[in-house]
Amino acid sequence: MKVSLTVNGERLEGDAWGGESLLTFLRDTLELPGSKNACEQGECGSCSVLFDGTLVCSCLVLAAQADGHAVVTVEGLAREEALHPVQQAFVDAGAVQCGFCTPGLVVATAALLERVPEHVLTVIDEAYFQYVEDPSFPDAIEEAAKRGRNVLALRTFSKIFGLAGLRIGYGVGPAGVVSAMRKVQRAFDVTTPAQEAALASLDDDAELERRRAVNRDAMAALEAVLREHGFDPISPAVGNFLFVDVGEDAAALDQRLLRRGVIVRPMGSFGAPSALRITAGTPEEIAFLAEQLDAVLVPEAGRIPVS
Amino acid sequence: MEVLRPRTLDEALALRAEHPEARPIQGGTDVLVELTFGHSRPDALLDLSEVAELRGVTQEDGALRLGAGLTYTEAMRAPLATRLPALAEASRTVGSPQIRNRGTIGGNLGTGSPAGDALPPLLAERAEVELASVSGTRTLPLEDFLLGVKRTALAGDELVTAVRIMPSGGAQTFAKVGPRNAMVIAICSLAVVVDTTEGEVRAAFGSAAVTAKRVTVPLADAAELPDLIAEAAAPIDDVRATAEYRRHALRVLATRTLERCVRS
After folding, report:
1. Span B106-112, mean pLDDT?
2. Rounded Cα gap, residues A26 and A69, in angstroms
3. Whole-angstrom distance, CA of residue A294 vs CA of residue A284
4. How far is B29 from chain A (nearest CA, A)?
């Protein structure tokens, strides 16, 4: 039977047998081999295409059902010489395993991102960004804001710069968003001394490097102390604090530490009632934390806090 | 193999009467696998995907009529998902986004697998199946429609056109056991509805008998539900699990889902 459809914007026609899938029709008859034939039962997604804009497995659509409809395959995502942003991102990140299912992953990812409407502003909070030492760590200013994505990247002077008391930070985003923010900026203006301090901080690379080194040592010392006390903090961490699961009673442990002069943050409000967030402090503070943990934890029981 | 492609319900019913041997196909998520792996080779396919009357949801006097072409993706969306939350939850467990975009409630009924994910929530809400042929329309309670493993009361000249439900408004949920969360056929599944208007708890299980089955208890005896479900189940040993495991897991799911509904 004749099947005539739009594929990647082009009107195409071909003969399909009655029980033929859209997948084999695309590959063998229309000579578009980008959609891969792997499981042929809707398990793997290698054959994913957009059918009238909806993500489907082409192995589970009858070729005949596509008659009169529009299909976009992985071949149709790129615009002339320019790869689709998702394809480019896969290339940049080396996002392949064996590579066979990659066309399906690309189509499915593109379809997923389509569902974040253009008018929705994505805000990425990078408060701890300057602590990060891995050069391959994603940078929202470089990778999203500067590429014209509808993304507002936020940075602060409250963390590594140590200017929390001055309440100052900055954001990088689309011009339209920034000009809209300017209209309400007056009520949230920062003082001239704060602006001066922030600008001076941005230029002091040597001091920033010193603080990164101090933090690196403090994070290692804090992790060691936590491990000595039988905990298994999530690591490697790239900020200036560790997240550690302490058992069922993080809030109670928090209170015991607080009475002894140690301030940590229970993570119940983040949906992790058994976890604490502990900031890497000075060597003296970390030693003090170790002493107080000795006092509030029963040594032989490991993690069980005593009252 | 011929593909018949009606555009209206009248055309579809006429073709169904003329070609009783034609296999109806909607989203294709079951039928394509059968065809591709040679499990069946019908002389003709009756493609229902262009029949507009089979799509959409309508409401009359509080009762919902879900067109047989309703996809799982559509069942997951508000406002339908707020009227039939257990069906929405069950739909979320079906396959992948690709499968949920194509697979339909009508297809789940037509296939009639004891593992059909939509069936327990529909049974627990006392759904009726609307069947049409050139000679008229009839409705059957879902429990009378499901006859056995992939066997239904659908006559040779009939098509499943809709599911009718009077939503109970009761707290309800769905749970399913499988080797992992995504892309699995249920080892067993359970939907529970706490219907305070009727003063009863209705539960329906899948993958633990030749069809999905419903168990009803008075609200006051809700605590007996796990035992009653385990008694009502008639599971088998197969590649996915043993009968003993299924019965045990159903008991666990019953306790868990009941607690969720009573707390909410």
Report:
1. 97
2. 13
3. 15
4. 5
pLDDT at A300: 47
Q: Is the pTM of this model over 0.90?
A: no
Predicted-complex ipTM score: 0.93
Average pLDDT, consecutive stretches of 10 residues, N- to C-terminus, chain A (307 residues): 96 96 97 96 96 97 97 92 91 86 95 82 93 88 86 96 95 92 88 96 94 96 95 92 90 93 93 93 96 80 50
Is A21 touching B (CB cutoff 8 A)? yes
Residue A223 tokens read as: 């992790």
Residues of B in contact with A54 (CB under 8 A): 101
**CA neighbor of B59 nearest in space, from B195, B162, B172, B173:** B162
Q: What is the pLDDT of residue A231?
A: 93
Return the SS3 of A224. Answer: helix
Residues in A closer than 8 angstroms to B25, CB to CB, are: 62, 65
Contact call for residues B90 and B127 (beta carbons, < 8 A) = no
> Which of A98, A114, A130 is the C-terminal boundary of a domain?
A114
Domain around A249: 207-296
State whether B3 and A42 contact (CB < 8 Å).
no
If one counts the domains in chain A, the total is 3
Does A45 reach chain B within 8 Å, measured CB to CB? yes
Q: What residues of chain B lie within 8 A of the CB of A65, using their CB? A: 25, 28, 47, 49
Q: Give the DSSP letter of residue A282.
A: -
Out of B118, B140, B165, a domain closes at B165
Nearest CB to B3; choose among A43, A64, A111:
A64
Which residues in B lie closer than 8 A to residue A56 (C-beta atoms)? 98, 101-102
Same-domain status, B186 and B153: no
